[in-house]
Amino acid sequence: MAGLLEPGMLVRHPDREDWGLGQVQSNIDSKVTVNFEHAGKVVIDSKRVFLLPVAGTDHP
User: CA 29, CA 49: separation in Å to the nearest integer?
Assistant: First the structure.
């Protein structure tokens, strides 16, 4: 799944709903950098956390 994440895609962290919506900034090897609404820029190890893609119409 992580290989499908591309810059610009919208995602949510499955365990941190309070972080809000995130936008993928980069995806290099297993490190995905995401800019979240309420947490800022976070680097996620995609081998440990499976980010949830959000369709363009699934958020306000």
Answer: 14
